[in-house]
Amino acid sequence: MRVNVSVNGEPMAADDVWEGESLLYVLRERLGLPGAKNACEQGECGSCTVYLDGTPVCACLVAAGQVEGRDVVTVEGLAPAGELDEVQRAFVEAGAVQCGFCTPGLIVQAHSLIESSPGVPDDAEIREALAGNLCRCTGYEKILDAVRLAAARKNGPAS
Amino acid sequence: MDFLRPLTWDEALALKAGRPDATPIQGGTDVMVEINLDKGRPAALLDLNPVTELTAWSQEGPVLRIGAGVTYARLIDELGSLLPGLAQASRTVGSPQIRNRGTVAGNLGAASPAGDSHPPLLATGAIVEAESVRGTRMIPITEFYAGVKRHTLEPDELIRAVRVPVATGPQYFSKIGTRNAMVIAVCSFAIALHPEERRVGTGIGSAAPTPRRAPVAEDFLASELDWEGHRPLDPETALRFGEMVAAAASPIDDVRGRADYRVHSLAVMARRTLGWAWNEYTGRRQA
Ligand SMILES: Cc1cc2nc3c(=O)[nH]c(=O)nc-3n(C[C@H](O)[C@H](O)[C@H](O)COP(=O)(O)OP(=O)(O)OC[C@H]3O[C@@H](n4cnc5c(N)ncnc54)[C@H](O)[C@@H]3O)c2cc1C
Ligand code: FES
Ligand code: FES
User: Which GO terms describe its molecular function (chain B) (predicted)?
Assistant: First the structure.
């Protein structure tokens, strides 16, 4: 089947999509967007997190046909080409990236947390927001640093 | 595999009547895991996302009618104060990404004994509104579960909504797992006090082939409590309540836990949730 979907603000069409295929497969294998990562395909790791109509979801658990006519934003779409979003910049500066496999999903999820927080979220809020994103390398401390840094820059200092 | 995309509820019912072998998909958080891991291929997927009728909820007198498309995230945000037990259980489901997609109707469709919405639905006496082209059926929650991962929907029926009475007293949910996030319950328990009827509701999860109530424990507690709210909870009553809840379970040993551990932890959860509920109840009465 054919799936029409807006990805990072651009209308796109994927052809020959198998009906049981996931949005993640469509993004990576049919639309040339390998940012969202495929690790578990069962919703456990969060490395495939993308925005669907503005809400972060696991792309591996969305059936391709379910995104017909909807809006998807992937990590590639958070900033204009060649630039970095504050969250991306903070991950680099804080040393929150090691192998990098978890990074795109964490960045989208952290982006959503920061967009919906009035100021700098506290540790409990950050941990809760990132509970579905696994990282096997960093031990999470630098990731928390990166989220606090990006939140402070985007939303002003903690109140 | 076919992909069916009804745009309205009537169209969804007509498609399901024509294709009783089609698997409905809402949040996909159960359906897609099965497909991705190749644990069986549905003949067709019936996508309910475009059916906007399903994403609404409404209050009809003392009952909330929650459309099958209302996600856990929305239920927590929008209905948390009206349905505290179900909201507490919803907060423990998966991760934010899972709660952004997953639904109570999907939890019912999957009918896993470990599903977190079942204990509060049992404790509050919820009703599953099932519909087909033949008409609507109101299925009391106790009659919904038919066995491990089996329910009593007919092949042409879809869940339209879940009807849950607005809380009139304290409600609590408790769940045992290996960490604080992303866990399937080892076992779980929900309590609801219904002061206007001087009745107690319970729900046990992951400790029998289906989620179930503990009716003996409910009757015992209803007769022991001081519904005027003057007396503190008798520790002996709480202990016996816990034992009776545990006695209602018939758990198995599996990878998540042993049967005897489940029985033990159910007794503890029942006692603790009762303590929280009673504190809230007497606090409210005195306020
Ligand atoms: C990483 C992860 C963590 C999870 N953690 C938990 C947890 O902590 N607790 C828990 O309880 N569950 C958990 N789950 C399981 C799942 O998220 C829940 O069961 C959820 O409620 C399913 O809802 P859904 O809308 O995604 O269902 P779907 O996957 O869309 O559907 C589930 C089932 O219900 C049927 N169905 C869906 N809608 C209807 C309808 N309207 N009428 C009839 N049948 C219908 C489907 O055909 C299917 O059989 C988890 C899943 C994942 C992937
Ligand atoms: S690949 Fe989607 S959650 Fe792991
Ligand atoms: S940096 Fe390697 S998994 Fe997170």
Answer: FAD binding; oxidoreductase activity
